[in-house]
Amino acid sequence: MNKTPINQSSQAIETKMLNKLQQLIEQLSKNGIKYCHWKSNSALSQVLTGQTDVDFLIHREDGNSFRLLMSQLKFRPAGIQGDAPFPAVEHYFALDEETGILVHMHAYYRVITGESLSKNLHLPLEEMLLQNVRKEDSIQVPAKSAELVVFTIRMMLKHTSLVELLMLARDWKGMRREIEWLLEAKPTDETLKLVENWLPAVDTRLFSQCIDALKTPALLPRRIILGLQLRSQLSIYARNSRLQAWLSGIQKFSLMAYGRLTRSKRAMILQSGGAVIAFVGAEATGKSTLLTETRRWLGEHFVIDQIHAGKPKSTPLTMLPNVLLPLLRSALPTYRPSKLITSSASTEQAQISPKVYPLISAIRSVFLAYDRRALLSRAFAQAANGSIVLCDRYPSMSKGAPDGPQLQQFEIDPKRYPIQSWLARTEKRLYKEIPAPDMVISLFVPLEVALIRNKNRGKEEPEDYVRFRHSLASNLEYGNAPVYKTNTDQPLDTTVLEVKKNIWRNL
Fold it and tell me: Are 183 and 152 in contact (CB under 8 A)?
């Protein structure tokens, strides 16, 4: 695969709004839907170029129109695996087809905020934010005086627990930039009027002290005390008791830790469900590279796993035989898969090749089929629970398929070879029981390119083996699964974008 640098394309989008967001903003205005991007607008350029999430506050009366618009623009609803969503908050994802960036949209119908993990407050500020708007970079955002109200509450509440303080410390410079940006127009007096009108339970003198403590900034103990005082005054707007909020925070923290273990930062799943996506192709077609790129892309947001159906892990039944396999391969080099495949493919060799697989090879083939069925059964269970499973190689029932039944290549006389015949039928049955993947990314390159790449790889396969596998790859079938053929003899960023489009279309 031609690994053309993609830095040029990524630099080009840094100053340009994503086309998908541009479409959304234009349609929101055209349909008269009241909205605003209600927080973190000091980093609005990062939002509009897909570097961070989009946080839209939507007028509740426009909720149905907004959801219809999101469907028309092909935004997919999503949620967090194993966790109830925050009330009045929805997640959507869409692919920007020019860049391959996934746009993550948070749609709020109420201002649900507070500590990062529990978001235990519903602040009655929706009308305040939607009535005090201005345009910045063609997008509706709150006036700085209104945004300062929300920002001050969010930041001060981060001082009320150790976990929140640690999270704040990680982005302290960002907090400092945002408070300085909000105070550029000196909106404090107007902000205090808004607090008095919309949050009558809050003492405006305390709120003014909180703003000053963030601006200076005050010493940490002072900020903690002010944060606790503000939280106490805001308790009337709490969604849950302190104990419930603490337990909710623990649950969210556990899910975050789980997300890290699964290499997904958000641990999100699409409402349409998970999928098993197979990457197939002959040697040197770029499967490993594209799997890595796809995992990085989807793993940024979704619960994801990657498996290798070509080399499945042993099950308890097959563990001992598989441990002995390297010794058997050393003792029987002519019965290695690559040797058997290439010899059976050659007319001249076929005349002198054995009429049946050696018994040890037949047993090994059945064990391999058993391991593959076990691995892929688990993969489909994960997909049924919302995970996206990326599969390196996948069994095909096509005759001679590299990862399919191997014992069907010879006419086995059941009377002469009853054990081998039974093993062949067992192998075929095991493969038939494996469901078809949800989609197949079938990679190919011209034969001459595959041969050159094979020679440049760390582990070179025999040339006859590469030629034969290349000839098979174009004819493999995978049940009813949609197959997307992708030529990888093109620049990497072009290939990756093509794969992203095909995957997103089917999720």
Answer: no
C-alpha–C-alpha distance, residues 166 and 369, integer Å: 49
Write out the H or E segment, with its range, that includes residue 95.
Answer: strand 89-96
- Measured between alpha carbons, how far is 239 from 118 in angstroms, rounded to an integer? 10
Q: CA 394, CA 436: separation in Å to the nearest integer?
A: 9
Question: How far apart (Å, rounded) are the C-alpha atoms in residues 468 and 83?
Answer: 49
In 97-214, the DSSP E strands lie at 101-108, 111-113, 121-123, 133-136, 139-142
Beta bridge partners of 136: 139
Specify the higher pLDDT residue, 359 or 9: 359
The residues pairing with 104 across neighbouring beta strands, listed in sequence order, are 93
Higher pLDDT, 352 or 296: 296
Burial zone of 189 (CB within 10 Å; 0-12 exposed, 13-18 middle, 19+ buried): exposed
Express the helix, strand and coil content of the chain in percent, nearest 5 each. 50, 15, 35
Q: How many residues belong to the chain?
A: 507
Task: Quote the distance between the C-alpha of residue 282 and its chain's center.
Answer: 26
Annotated domain spans of the chain: 7-261, 273-506
Is residue 396 a contact partner of residue 403, using CB atoms and an 8 Å limit?
yes
Q: Across the chain, what does the average pLDDT equal?
A: 85
Distance CA 113, CA 153 (A): 9
Q: Alpha-carbon torsion 294, 298, 300, 303, what sign?
A: negative
Model confidence at 435: pLDDT above 90: yes
The C-alpha atoms of residue 84 and residue 77 are separated, in whole angstroms, by 14
**DSSP structural state of residue 446:** -
* Domain 273-506: CATH superfamily, name plus number: P-loop containing nucleotide triphosphate hydrolases (3.40.50.300)
pLDDT digits (tens, 9 = 90+) for 281-326: 887 788 899 999 999 999 999 999 999 998 899 888 888 877 776 6
Sheet holding 101-108, edge to edge: 35-37, 54-58, 101-108, 89-96, 76-80, 268-270
